[in-house]
Amino acid sequence: MASAHSIPSIEERFEFTSGAKRNLIIGGAVGVALIALGAYLAASGGGHHEAVAHGAEHAASAIAHPTPENAGKAHVAAEAGHHVKGLAARIWANLWVNAVYFTGISVIGMFFISYNYLAQAGWSAVFKRIPEALPAFLPVTGIVMLITFFFGGHDLFHWTDASLYEVGGEHYDPIIAGKQGFLNTPFFVGRLIFYFVAWYGMWKVIRKYSLQEDEIGGTEFYDKSIRLGTAFLVVFGVTSSTSAWDFVMSIDTHWFSTMFGWYTLASWHVAGLAVITLTIVMLRERGYLRAVNASHLRDLGKFVFAFSIFWTYVWFAQFLLIYYANMPEETIYFIERFRGYDGFFKAPFFITLILNFFLPFLILMTRDAKATHSILKVACWCVIIGHYMDFYTNVMPGTMGSSAGFGPLEWGFFVLFLSAFAYSVASQLEKANLIPRHHPMLEESLHHDIA
Amino acid sequence: MAELTGKYLVGVYDDDDTVLHAVPRLRKAGVKIQEVYSPFPIHGLDEALGHPRTRIGIAAFMFGVTGCCVALTLMIWTMGIDWPMIIGGKDPISIPNYIPITFELTVLFTAFGMVTTFFISNGLSPAAHNHKRFDVRSTDNKFVMAIDMGRNSMSEDEISRVLRDSGAEEVNIKQF
User: Cβ separation of A366 and B57 shorter than 8 Å?
Assistant: First the structure.
């Protein structure tokens, strides 16, 4: 019985200690060092397989045996052949993967509080500050994406090549030319800026309401937040899909999937939930958030568990239809990841499935597991790393192809982004009382009991 | 569930909150409670009564694994071994094609298996005519607490007094 337990104090301030700051800065420095090491290794010519020779060989054998499967091979091989990318492209691609991934995690914080407001959910009020702290990182990823697009866009996005649109020209591509109305630089940059302004701007306002509510109280800010949260969900309902097309799907310019918007949203969502859960567990281990009880943890664990399955469901729905129909222009996407580029992406492809489905599914299945700190931590890290691999597998074949690598450079960028993100979240948590003391649903949340 | 025989004291309560608070009081006084019957689920009652946790989850997992194996065996045998068929240009045994049906049969076996297990362990079946009730009002507006006199060493009067103290509006005797 929840009422039998005493409720810990709701007045608590998170202190971002100098030790924690130092650790995160060291984390960032380790990231930079790994990047430097990776860049040195790549520049000194280690690692890559002989793409050109292989590409030509595959293409020749595919032309000799023209079956639909071989047509795919020829396409892969042809792309592998004429795209040998250098170190700069690899750095831009890594920046893009991480920026897209952490943009998603950040905006999911806003998404989480918005649908909790819309549902007038009570249980989540006590830890509302944690999802609320995530979107503060959006300007960083937004600027990184803009810079990456301006300087490295041509390395990442095939459709930025102007010669594709010259009717009658050597490189004229009628399929890509048909998409020009949507995929052109001014509109793309406009959309990119719009996403970040809309997401970050709406978060700024809801955050302001939340902090005012802490000082003044009453239900006025709660009502306003419900309205704003609902508006955000409408905006995000559209922009989550379009941003997924822009950021990820447009890399493989010929290919499209109607599941892709949902697929990326599912990926972002479960990663965001894992970050929220992990942050709460880590705060509890440091003595904060004692008011979060086993029922809250179990519900968060269920969220991660359920949305891991949801992601898998969407992933599989996309895969199965393409597999069944077996149309070359669609299967190319999976052939590239399965056996294109000497099978380089086969490992990340399957690691993604293991980390994002099998492990969380088995680890979080039992009731007790969902309320155990150590088990939740393992499951959340699986999901966080797994969805990084997910974006890696989505972005890299189309951008780097046979020049892709997975070494210190990739780890370094991930560690650097992770440290910067954690720094941003911790500085936001420090700015307000860790428990929203005047939230109208707080009392219900403190007594949350699903036994 | 054990067969109900012998003599029972039946406390009738009017309010779910009263009965929820009565349970720890009675247990503290040394009374062993058989069961509490309520028209709707009461949060925290299972814990208060100290009932062991249900093992139906384990049964569900077993049924699920059975369903998964049955589905895969069925499809691999019929489609791949007994009468190999090529559908959509795929191998006769192609696991991705089998996943939706494997999922369906896993869920089907789990659901049916759990319902059957639940009925059996509660003595519910179309053939069961052993309708022993402590008080029919527990399906309407009353909360009924049953105490097995065979398992309690305290006297009837004493238990009856504790029941009334804890808020019971009636205390009846039921003999099966």
Answer: yes
- The whole-angstrom separation of Cα B63 and Cα B43 is 28
Q: Are A1 and B47 an interchain contact pair (Cβ–Cβ within 8 Å)? A: yes
Distance in angstroms (rounded) separating the CA atoms of residues A263 and A317: 10
CA A241 – CA A96 distance, rounded (Å): 18
For the record, the structure tokens of B117 come out as 């297990």
Among B128, B169, B176, which Cα is nearest to B145's?
B169
Q: Is there a contact between B44 and A367 if contact means CB atoms under 8 Å apart?
A: no
SS3 B8: strand
DSSP output for B18-75? HHHHHHHHHHHTTPPP-EEE-SS--TTHHHHHTPPPP-HHHHHHHHHHHHHHHHHHHH
The string of DSSP letters for A178-215 reads HTTTTS-HHHHHHHHHHHHHHHHHHHHHHHHHHHHHHH
- B20/A451 touch (CB, cutoff 8 Å), yes or no: no
CB contact under 8 A, B20 and A1: yes
Task: State the pTM of this model.
Answer: 0.86
Quote the CA–CA distance of A122 and A116 in Å, as a whole number: 8
Residues B30-44 pLDDT 10s = 889 988 999 999 988
pLDDT band at A76 (very low <50, low <70, confident <90, very high): very low
In B, which residues are within 8 Å of A367 by CB distance?
Answer: 57
Which two tokens mark A8? Answer: 């810990």
| pLDDT tens digit sequence for A78-109 | 444 445 678 999 999 999 999 999 999 999 99
In degrees rounded to 5, what are phi and psi of residue A27? Answer: -55, -45
pLDDT at A298: 95
**Greater model confidence, B87 or A150:** A150
Q: Sign of dihedral through CA atoms B59, B60, B63, B64?
A: negative
User: Across the interface, do B99 and A316 touch by the CB < 8 Å criterion?
Assistant: yes
Nearest-by-CA chain A residue for B47: A1
Q: What is the pLDDT of residue B24?
A: 93
The rounded distance, in Å, linking the Cα atoms of A313 and A306 is 10
H/E segment holding residue A22? helix A18-43
Closest CA to A390 of A421, A345, A336, A324: A345
**In whole angstroms, what is the distance from residue A299 CA to residue A375 CA?**
14
Q: Do A326 and B88 touch (CB under 8 A)?
A: yes
How far is residue A444's CA from residue A154's CA, in Å, rounded to a whole number? 53
Q: Which residues of A61-93 are buried (b: 16+ CB within 10 A; e: fewer)?
A: ebeeeeeebbbbbbbbbebbbebebebebbbbb
> Which of A123, A310, A324 is most worth mutating to test chain B (most B CB atoms within 10 A of its CB)?
A324
Inter-chain contact A367–B57, Cβ cutoff 8 Å? Answer: yes
**Contacts with B47 from chain A: Cβ below 8 Å:** 1, 451
User: Looking at the partner chain, which of A1, A316, A324 has a beta carbon nearest the beta carbon of B88?
Assistant: A324
Retrieve residue A227's tokens.
């309205």
How big is the A-B interface in CB pairs under 8 Å? 25
Pick from A1, A3, A309, A358 the residue to mutate for testing the B interface (most B CBs within 10 Å).
Answer: A1
- Nearest chain A Cα to B96, which residue? A320
CB–CB of A127/A429 below 8 Å?
no
